[in-house]
Specification:
heterodimer; A: alpha+beta; Ubiquitin-like (UB roll); Alpha-Beta Plaits; 27% helix; 18% strand; B: alpha/beta; Dimethylsulfoxide Reductase, domain 2; Rossmann fold; 18 helices; 21 strands; globular
Amino acid sequence: MENQQTIVINGNRFNFTTGDTILEVALQNNIKIPTLCHLKGATPTGTCRVCVVEIAGQSELMTACDTRAAENMTVLTESTRVVESRRQTLHAMLSKGNHNCAVRAAHEESWTAYQLKVHQEDNSPELCPAWGDCRLQDLAYHYQVSGGGYTNVNALYPMEMANPFIIRDFSRCILCGRCVKACNEIQVNLAINFGYQGDAAKIIAKDDKPLKDSDCVFCGECMQVCPVGALVPKDARFDRPWEDEKVRSTCSYCGVGCQLDFHVKDNRIVKISGAEDAPPNYGSLCVKGRFGFNFVSSPDRLTTPLIKENGKFREATWDEALDLTAKRFSEIKEKHGADTIGVLTSARISNEDNYAAMKFTRAVLKTNNIDHCARL
Amino acid sequence: MTNTIGDIEDADVILVTGSNTTENHPVLSSHVKRAVKFKKAKMIVVDPRQIKLTGFADHWLRPNLGTDVAWINGLMHVIIAENLYDKTFVESRTTDFEAMKAVVQKFTPDYVEGITGIPARQMIDAARLYAGAKAGAILYCMGITQHTTGTDNVKSLANLAMLCGNLGVSGGGVNPLRGQNNVQGACDMGGLPNVYTGYQKVTDEAVRKKMEDAWGVTGLSDKIGLTVTKMVPMAHEGEIKAMYIIGENPLVSDPDLNHAEKSFSHLDFLVVQDIFMTETAQLADVILPSVCFAEKDGTFSNTERRVQRVRKAVDGPGAAWDDWRITCEIAKRMGYDMAYKNAGEIFEEIRRVTPSYAGISYTRIDSIGLHWPCPTEDHPGTPILHTSQFTHGKGVFHAIEFIPPAEHTDDEYPLYLTTGRVLYHYHTGTMTRRTDGLNELAPESFVEIAAQDAEKFGIPDESLINVASRRGTITVRVKISDMAVAGTVFIPFHYAEAAANKLTNAALDPVSNIPEYKVCAVKLSKVA
């Protein structure tokens, strides 16, 4: 083909289209380049430098996520220099925060003191909330990096617990900016951004307010994309993914029909996350869809049929309640005619439930008096 | 929706009206905001409140409540007068253009300004912008439909889209945003007084015969049934004797609640099937406990007509059953066998009797849902409607006159009230008000009022106040807000203890029977 441009990655030649980044070309050809700050659907930042690659003829290593492929460019994704650079990057990240998992420094003598300090700051004897579900941990393991060698500095900013849903743990934040991208470019809520300079850098809401006093609407997108333990759900802080069963379903609030995953443990919903691989929401949810599920296990749920006698409800068996219902409907239909009975089906229940209600109304009651609250 | 949610990002002009999208359809609103911020789409918001989307919009047009037909006719007047309409589309795909044109003739920008309060200049700019779009999307919600002229409003928006050839193209369309997870599905399944599944009419003899054969019954009624807004007053008059209410809470969601409550208490027999002891269930003779969405298998159909799977994650509480199973057990006891092993068997029956669902199966939608119409197993589904022709051939322009809302302010009731939802709660609050965190963020009802009105009536921010209409009184907290425009207040309807629907007007749209929740007259007074 004319004008077909090619790039050489790890000795193999690949086609690319103008505008493609090195990362995109690599992904298309099943070459793994590790990333941390990169977020699908958002513009690249090149902040974390985990995706650096070596380009022939260039003295500096370049970030694959925001460097465009060029004709005849020759790229190495796992050269000695690249690996050394990634190790240094990961080491620096691990050394600065409360990354109390096995990769942090398990072999060091200072581990116990460090661990105790973190437990105190966490007010919990657990390992990091993201342990076992952490991109930084995965990469550290992959590149065999541990976090020793730095003096432990105390976290500059205290943990923020002052909202019902999201814990902001600045001691574990690696400032990759995925949350900032998710908030500004995916959900476009424009609530958080980078603040302060140098070592004081922090992700801030408004002019450094708690989330609840900012423009945050608690969609939780930031939490879902956080690659470490810096943003975790308050109600499922130490939830370990391998203990949960994931069940794909559809949200039950508005008509958008977001696809979600229930995380279930011991017959209880522990948390809900957005399904990243499915339309229409591709991982996004709103505050109701992500956090508004407590009603499912509410003690107020109806658990048994009830029959009203002398103005008061009493518990009944299914047979009693169903027999009474069938008997009364039959009597009223017989005496006053089918059209004196009305059925309200529901915009909240499934298609299958609605079909059954519709068929019952028309085929059994023999009336078309059926409607639901679409108008209300 | 005629188009898909993802499609919004292909629009170059988006007109949003009667939809507080960021609070009611937050995830969909992200598509709108992304289109504007990153894909250079222009946006026109027409809304009586200064909702968050106005901050992203190029134009915010602020109409007086209940004047939608006037501004839509006004836009069309400008577009026709300036010859900006899509003549090819109008000629090849539509009829009755001349009749519509004759009516909009008098809706000059100045005339419309007099009715709507929208400055003529803004109207002209918005008309030019929408007409100039290659693909212009219209998004609307209950702010358009919940009026005595709701049907006229919807038809007017369809007129506008047809006039500019914005149907059948990616990024275009007329897109109602459905407010409930499965309101589309409830309609698709024939949960309406005039149609079976897939909008097959009960008055069509061939359809009735088909359903009779499929169900093994005879004597299906050919008489169009009653809408909910007719059933309730007829219950009051004793003409409706019994009701079977499944998963609905009309005692908070109905208009003019004081009247609705009396109506339900007049019934000889009321069965309520629900997951909670709702305000409506309290009035029931029998309550049947059902499982909720996380405890059942099945499907929902979303606002873009996409049929998606629902899967059981946890067991239901106590003796609660699937809704369909309860209904089938009542049927069986009335002498008709409705026996299904599971939801999947019901879906298979739905496919057999519903042409638009015939090609959809649980297997096909296992990971990603399909848009109906999907007539056969090898059909890819229909993301965009009306691409080459309308369902009934040509698109019909409707000539629509402006009719004012049913109720107006006067000396005694000097403020307009409009109602809606807030981000943190859902409908009558039976679900969201059982999540502590959501209550913490939105604990109680409020009346949103402009600073000028608060000053005029001498009302301090955050004080409790009585709000009264000609039908009832509630007590709510004052919230002075930039979202309110002087002369109009807003109250959310989630809170049963301060139910906004004690105030709202039960006046109905004559065609759809939808109540005019979005306009009534109120007064404020100090709490005694």
